[in-house]
């Protein structure tokens, strides 16, 4: 069916449609009759055995006669308050998003081969409470975020680290690298470049040339990568266009899913490529330049500017030792750019317009300092 702008404005107000063309969407419908499904003998497609019907595991919850035997009935069965699985699985996945590890570690397997919950009574209580409050996700998120468990310090003593390295006992706050999409968001948000518009089409930010072209037959709309410009370069990471055969390289480096299969939990790796991406990605370098430009407009000392940048990026006040090191680095970079006179080459990264008032030598030096702050482990670590 086709959805027009008038439909979006008058009826489908929840659809965020930014273009003016008609949007064509696929609508799934049920057939009048249900085709027969057979048990296949030894898995052979044309060796039909007995006829089987759709059903649900009786060991969990019998499928009530009051439910229609279709997708609506399956939904009603899933969200029946007597179903012991749906709420627990969802609550466990939300807990995993906050703590990096579910109450049941095997968040994709609650069966006999999965692990037992570390805190079974907590999982039961959260699941029942979630159902009793109308499956309200926002309430669940707020409940976990404001809990004393989540609000603990991430600092751990050597004794506790030795006793409980995986923090199964929840004696400290979680500490792990943020998801791939959020790495981009942290950089754009702290520099002031992030576009906060919600919804809309996917965007194609900076990407090394030739990736799509080297992995295509040369035919079709997606044979060539056409980078977006202006505000589209600064959308949140979740809006980045993903081509499954050639996913965005920086997101892949930070363990984003390649969309070939569903992933209940992503891998978390630590590789030199991640450091190289943070040091050379155009988005990081452009954000460093833009933030440096803004800070140099402020009156004050270089230490004050560096302290402000540190707080915006790392979300804490820098220690005296950190300020001294970064201020010393800034002074060194000033000397380097004054001697080599290559500031313009360094500042040429990215499409965001360069300020004409700022001293380019100072801007390049401050840009290098901010890029160093972006490359701190603490910048992209949840703690």
* Strand element count: 6
Number of helices: 14
Provide the gyration radius in Å: 26 Å
The class by helix and strand makeup works out as mainly alpha
CA distance, first residue to last residue: 47 Å
Helix fraction bin: 25-40%
Identify the strand order in the major beta sheet: 1-2
Taking all residues together, what is the mean pLDDT? 89
| Sequence of secondary-structure elements | EHEEEHHHHHEHHHHHHHHE
* Estimated share of beta-strand residues: under 5%
For the sheet with most strands, the description reads: 2 strands, antiparallel
Unreliable stretches (pLDDT < 50, length at least 5) are none
The general outline is globular
Short description:
The chain is mainly alpha-helical.
What descriptors fit this protein?
mainly alpha; two-stranded antiparallel sheet; 383 residues
Your description of this structure?
19% of the residues are buried. The chain has helices spanning 5-10, 71-78, 86-99, 120-132, 137-145, 158-163, 180-191, 249-253, 272-280, 282-297, 302-314, 320-340, 343-347, 360-374; strands at 2-3, 23-24, 37-40, 48-52, 176-177, 381-382. The longest helix has 21 residues, at 320-340. By secondary structure, the chain is mainly α. The strands form 3 sheets. It has a two-stranded antiparallel ribbon. The model has no long low-confidence stretch (mean pLDDT 89). It contains 14 helices and 6 strands.
């Amino acid at each position: 069916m086709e959805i027009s702008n008038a439909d979006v404005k008058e009826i489908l107000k929840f659809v965020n449609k930014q273009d003016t063309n008609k949007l064509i969407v696929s609508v799934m419908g049920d057939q009048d009759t249900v085709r027969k499904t057979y048990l296949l003998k030894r898995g052979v497609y044309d060796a039909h055995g007995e006829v089987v019907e759709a059903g649900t595991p009786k060991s969990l919850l019998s499928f009530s006669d009051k439910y229609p035997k279709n997708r609506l009935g399956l939904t009603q069965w899933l969200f029946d308050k007597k179903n012991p699985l749906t709420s627990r699985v969802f609550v466990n996945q939300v807990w995993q998003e906050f703590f990096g590890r579910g109450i049941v570690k095997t968040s994709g397997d609650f069966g006999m081969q999965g692990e037992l919950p570390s805190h079974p009574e907590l999982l039961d209580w959260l699941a029942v409470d979630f159902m009793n409050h109308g499956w309200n996700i926002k309430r669940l998120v707020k409940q976990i975020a404001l809990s004393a468990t989540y609000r603990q310090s991430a600092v751990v003593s050597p004794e506790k680290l030795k006793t409980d390295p995986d923090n199964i006992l929840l004696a400290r706050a979680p500490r792990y690298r943020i998801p791939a999409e959020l790495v981009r968001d942290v950089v754009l948000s702290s520099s002031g470049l992030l576009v906060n518009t919600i919804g809309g089409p996917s965007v194609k930010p900076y990407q090394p040339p030739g990736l799509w072209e080297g992995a295509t037959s040369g035919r079709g709309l997606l044979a060539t990568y056409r980078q977006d410009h202006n505000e589209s370069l600064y959308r949140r990471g979740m809006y980045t266009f993903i081509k499954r055969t050639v996913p965005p390289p920086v997101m892949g480096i930070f363990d984003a899913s390649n969309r070939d299969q569903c992933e209940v939990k992503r891998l978390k790796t630590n590789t030199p490529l991640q450091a190289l991406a943070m040091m050379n990605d155009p988005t990081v370098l452009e954000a460093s330049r833009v933030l440096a430009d803004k800070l140099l407009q402020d009156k004050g000392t270089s230490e004050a500017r560096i302290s402000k940048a540190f707080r915006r990026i790392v979300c804490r006040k820098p220690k005296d030792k950190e300020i001294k090191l970064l201020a010393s680095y800034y002074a060194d970079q000033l000397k380097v750019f004054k001697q080599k006179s290559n500031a313009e080459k360094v500042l040429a990264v990215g499409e965001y317009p360069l300020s004409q008032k700022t001293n380019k030598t100072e801007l390049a030096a401050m840009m290098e300092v901010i890029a160093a702050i972006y490359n701190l482990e603490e910048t992209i670590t949840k703690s």
